[in-house]
Structures are given as C-alpha cells and as structure tokens.
Design goal:
Elements: H1 2-28, E1 38-48, E2 57-69, H2 73-104, H3 108-124, H4 129-185, H5 193-210, E3 215-219, E4 225-229, E5 237-238, E6 241-242, E7 245-249, E8 255-259, E9 262-264, H6 269-304, E10 306-307, E11 318-319, H7 322-325, E12 327-328, E13 339-340, H8 351-363, H9 365-405, H10 409-443
Antiparallel strand pairs: 1-2, 3-4, 4-5, 5-6, 7-8, 8-9, 10-13, 11-12
Length: 444
Amino acid sequence: MASDLFTIGSSGVKAARTALEITSQNIANAATDGYIRRSVRLSEMAGPGSWLRVSDLSLSGVRVDGIGRNADLFRQVEVRRTGGDAARASTELRGFENIEAALEQSALFPALTGFEASLQRLSSDPVNPSLRAAVLEDARTLSRTFNLAASALDTAGEGQRFEASDGVNQINLLAGELGRVNLQLTRTTTGTSDQVTLLDQRDLLLERLSGYGDIAVSYAPDQTVEVRMGGGPTPLVSGGNAAPLAMSANADGTLAFTLGGNPITLSSGKLAGHAQTLTALRDNRATLDSIADSLIAAANTAQASGVALDGTPGQPLFTGSGAAGIAIALAAGSGIATAPAGAAAGSRDPANLAALRDALQTAGISGQVDGLLFTASSAVAGRRVTSEALDAIASSARIALDEQAGVDLDQEAANLVRFQQAFQASGKALQVASDIFDTLLALK
C-alpha cells in the first residue's frame, strides 16, 4: 500500500509541477507574437493487480502524455486568408493615395484653367506684348505641371517597385527559415516542448508569408508543411527546400513574378497590392500622356493655321510628346499666332486665337484632366472603404483565434492556484506514504 501511495504521490507531484511550469510559460509569453497557449495532456496510470490478486486494479497515479497547443487549424487559416486580403487592400490604398497626390499636387487643373484664362484675356487685345508674354508663361507653367505630374507618378512607381522588391526578399528569407523549421520538426518527438515551440515558429512564419502573397498549405503527419504560392506548379517550401521567388519589372513599369522559374499570379498580400497599384499607375500615366499629346496637337495645329505678330506663319507652341516630354517651343510671346493665315503683320484680328481656344475645347482637355483627377480620387475612396471592411474582417478572425489560442491571464492565474494545490496535495500523499512505511517498519 505504501509503495502504491509513493508511486501515486510522486506521479502527482511530477504532473502538478509540469502543469505549473506550463502555466508559468503561458503567463511569461502572453504578449509574445505567435505564441499559442500550452496545456498539459494527462492520463490515468492503472494496471492489473499482482499474480496473487489478479482481480485487483493496481493504481499508479497519473502520466504526463505530452504538451498540447490550443491551436485551431481552421481559425489559423482564416487569420492568414483575411490578413492577406487586408494587407493587399491596405497596400493598394496607400499606393492609390500616392497616385492621387501625384496628380493633385502638381496643380495640373489650375495650370490648365490659368492658360485658358490668359488666352481669353489676350483675345481682348491681341497685340499687347504683356498679355502675349503672360500666355507664353502660362503655357510654360502648364507644360511644367505635366512634367511634374509625370515625374511624381514615376517616383510613386519607383517606391512601389522598391517595396515589392523588399517583399520578395522577405518571402525568400521566411521560406528559407520555414524549410529549416521543417527539418527540425522531423527530428523532434511528438508532444515535447521542443515540438510545440517549433510548431509556433512554423505557424508564425506561415502567417507572415500570407501577408506578402496568397499561400496554400499542406500538412504532413510529422507536422511539416508544403507551401505553394500564387497557384504556381512549384512549391515555395517543400520539406527543407525553398524555391526562389523572383520579381521583374515590365517595360510599362508593372510587375511579373516567378517562383522557381515559373510565372505566378498573386491575388492577396502586399505584393499583390503593389502589383495592382502599378497597373493602375500605368493606366493613369498613359491617360496623362494622352492628355498632353492632345494638348500639343490641338495647340500646334491651331498655331499652324494662323500667323504671328510679325505676319510669319505660326510655329508650334509646344514641343515633345507625353507628359514627361512636353515643353514650350516658342521663345517669345510675339510668336503666338492670334491672326488668321494671310493677315498682315500687327493684325488685331483674333480669329486664329479663337480657333485655338475652340480647338482646346473640342479636344476636351479640361474635361480629360478633370476626369483623370476624379477617377483617381474615386479610386482612393473605393479602396478606403474596401480596406476598412477587410481590416474589420481580419480583426474578427484574429479575435476568434486569440479567444481560442491566446493566453488569458485570469485563467492562468486561477490555474496557478489549482496546480499549486494539486502539488501540495500530492506532496501530502507522499508524506502519508512515508508515515505508513515508517509504521510498518516499526511493527517489525
């Protein structure tokens, strides 16, 4: 009897001590990123009696079967999925805000309306040198605002590509680390503290990867994972191996990704956000170039139809092409062709100036610029709504996981008291067993 009590008491002390250690570990790591609450798995130890009393049950106390993680695979997958969508939307929002700022801060629309206003003022006195100089200066300002807008869009694109390149590097680092964790998992014993620590590292790496791109995860019986990204045929991580993710910039500034040499398309995560932003930036830049070319064509065609102040044929007002290349071509305001072809030098006939204003109106330059700015601001507003909605969904998924897998300090404090009492009670059982053993020795 005393030996049974010793066995039961010592096993109880061991189990309670292990539970106290795990509880303390939970408390210490309550704020640790990626930490999943641990619990001790216990089972009763009992067996048949001795050969003399086979009908008896031999009680042997409790056994520590291992350490468990309160992880829910479905909730973890939801955190990765919703987090990736939120990361894509947030990246898109910031990128679209940069596009809007590049267009708005260039003051393109005010410069265009200022140029049109100076043309109107000149029509009242076509030979006035100061009014002619003002038109030329406003035309120069307008061309420079196109240059500024194009440069700002290019800078925004460079920033997006730089961040995307950094994201690719981060993915390759995370994938390499995940491969090493896979190898370590194959060498650990199920239910040990080493294994659960590695599983925490594995899941944290998976979550971080999902923040950069959409991933599909397969789990092996030994808890290693195979990770695929972007629907490509080559796994990003398989066993201890990690395939390289690469990024290249197309001629139009958009991005292309390859995994292990095979092209992939990303639909979530930061990299998808950068890619979609650059696609939108390309479209905005193309629209801006088209507007600049329309302005150049309209103004220069009108100039060619009239004569300058000295009676010579009108020369191009603008030179170059596209928003980045547009520049003022005339050296002096006297070159503005306000009079129709055939008019004498010094003519006050503003017919060709009216034709220039009509050409700008027909080309819809102001409407195109206004439409470009409106589209950019509308895109930002739409992305903001989407980002806020996806952030809320991701937050809900995170809360659901934390409720199940996170550390509740109040609960852990109660567990400390409970396991301390169990430890003390098991120690008391050992004391009783010792007293009984001493009594038996005294009888002899």
